[in-house]
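Researcher: I'm comparing several assemblies side by side, and this is the next one on my list. It has 904 residues spread over two chains. Same procedure as the others: predict the full complex and return the structure.
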Amino acid sequence: MARTASLSGFPELLPAERLVELHVLDTLRRVFELHGFSSIETRAVETLGQLLRKGEIDKEVYAVSRLQDEDQETGGGQGSRQADDDQLALHFDLTVPFARYVVENAGHLAFPFRRYQIQKVWRGERPQEGRAREFTQADIDVVGESQLPFRYDVELALVIVDALGALPIPDFQLRINNRKLAEGFYRGIGLDDTAGVLRSIDKLDKIGPDKVAELLHNELGATTEQAHAALKLASIRAEDTSFVDQVRELGVNDDLLEEGLAELEQVISEATKRAPGRVLADLSIARGLDYYTGTVYETVLLGHESLGSICSGGRYDSLASKGNKKYPGVGLSIGVTRMVARMLNQELATASRPVPTAVLVSLNNDESWSAAQDVADALRKRGISTEVAATAAKFGKQIKYADRRGIPFVWFTNDDGTHEVKDIRSGEQTAADPDLWSPPAADLAPAVVAGS
Amino acid sequence: MARTASLSGFPELLPAERLVELHVLDTLRRVFELHGFSSIETRAVETLGQLLRKGEIDKEVYAVSRLQDEDQETGGGQGSRQADDDQLALHFDLTVPFARYVVENAGHLAFPFRRYQIQKVWRGERPQEGRAREFTQADIDVVGESQLPFRYDVELALVIVDALGALPIPDFQLRINNRKLAEGFYRGIGLDDTAGVLRSIDKLDKIGPDKVAELLHNELGATTEQAHAALKLASIRAEDTSFVDQVRELGVNDDLLEEGLAELEQVISEATKRAPGRVLADLSIARGLDYYTGTVYETVLLGHESLGSICSGGRYDSLASKGNKKYPGVGLSIGVTRMVARMLNQELATASRPVPTAVLVSLNNDESWSAAQDVADALRKRGISTEVAATAAKFGKQIKYADRRGIPFVWFTNDDGTHEVKDIRSGEQTAADPDLWSPPAADLAPAVVAGS
């Protein structure tokens, strides 16, 4: 990652770095499956019409067209912009494709449907740290048919705490808010363009409270008192349910506000009990995307706040719908590439060796290759990753090859048919039987460990 | 897979089908790593110049452009076809991107470099059975710096036999030929456009020997005797090294032919010894792509020959080069999507259940959710995939939910704090301790088993 990508915004990893990423992906998958989430993948392309159905992300999309489109089956050929319905584009997240998948396959799925999805997504944004043009997301969502119990809002926060907690990363904190709470509050103080207020509040981190107050005044016609109240609400943070009293002290009455307060209280009280120190009620969290309708989540790595959120999501009441049937859901998305890039750049985690191989079986002479493969087969049968030397170079050269590749053990077969294995780090060499010998557990596979 | 893809050529799987695909991918990865191959991934896009450097695949490529390309950083905007050097396109295989990766990162890699790479690729071809527009390939290659011992040509065939042999698929056969053998033979009988002959021979399966003879005559000016000899060579098949004598009987003398014969003899003799019945010397195998220079491989599923090759590859002496440095390699690519589609369509393999979940923890009442999470945590800690019911519906309804999802066990907590677990398939219910109980090994995770 210290190397420069040959195509800006499209990072590629070296094998040892990829081991760190694989460890992250494997760990997330394991935890998601332990919680009963099924794997699915969706195609990389959607129609432009599908992608732009929600929100304004026009700029970020990569269009896809066949280079020589003879039969005009799909996509726009060079110079001919096709209708949005046919034009294909790479997906920019996994939520929109998942919504389409649910509607298309509803008859084959059991609801509430729990799925995880780990795939690349593409956005044509200007590359910078923490923001690539091609990156991997790991999403979990639960989607119901017509309705979805609120409890899933609590459960998904706990699954994410479990998943991130299993990774070799610094302490993290889920910061949770509720759209109903915020929107009800704004309505209660007389600011009816609640989406507009949310958009302004979303800029708090970037431009500060004074500029946000200005925005609220200039763009939404808020009075000084209204702007003050909205900022006051956004300043509330609590590691327990004390935020409820703090909101009540602001003296605003609204049914939707009450509903949101009750929901957020439920999430925070259960999550602080089961995952103390991992969650925070943060009433400044807005999340830009329009489709959230209740709980919203962000996640920061403590000490790495400038990186932005590494895991975000929320509740949506009707991201997907077909006819008059709605599919409400709640989900979160982990920014794997952003997180792994930071882990690698700051050596927060490293692989103990760059290759899977534990043992190199050396050759006495060129004719011994087949016998060496027998040794290798015996070791592999017991789960020990093994390579065989390709040529009968001098032993010193074969050992050097292992050393250069990071392989810890070299296997020798003596003329009398007995075997020895050498730990090339310590130099220790012992008699060994291909059907019995195993490396120490720590050397069996490359381990990914938290950095110094 | 029985369902129609909503976008032709872009198949998507249901959760139970995805389990079969995951099983294939996990198995391939495990075997590749046991043989010391490192995982890498390359970006999905390459520059068009890079993609078209070898061979003529212009038609098949999907170009990628930012929809609103304000700063002209990458890709061609609408209506402006950019130079091939800047225009981005989706990769159509993993070999070309790997060659670029090796050249770019040569200073950071230990040679011979062994890597596996499992990713999606895209081709704008007309979709048909066994041919999608988006599909997954699983590649292994070994690449050397300046030179690569021939032995790797033998080794890679054995790795593939190991990998495919670990899958729940029908018997398969690697069919192996050697470009040097074929080209030397053609040269030896006076046909100097050896690439042209190979291209004609490549059509044998599709158009038959008479048409191929016609092609050789009309397009390459071959005499009847030359066409006959070329077809005679292509008709040779042997499960052992007897092909050597059969070729010699044709009475052609050429140094390159001799070199190819010796190489193919080495591969076949070692592979038939270590993997009897799995390999065949098939002197009709040509492989279309120009960059192969020695051994070439194809693989058929026996009884499914019409599907085409499920794993192909070969030796290339200079796919990648930088200045006067060459990186010769040998590799094979498994067509995962093609193979999995067949496995699903013909039910050659199925998942024992559609979800990872082994246990649903039921709720006595709404307040027991947190206690139920404690039970679930205890089970998950021991690797048992567990969900908690979201609402305290009647037990019958909770059991029905488990049944509908394919979850085999439902957990109950009695008022006195004792626990019971019910196998909802047999109806058997027994006392259980969350810290001790485990499902039978066969029920721990969904198993993928060869079909009836």
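Model: For your comparison table: Residues 71-81 of chain B have pLDDT under 50 and may be disordered.
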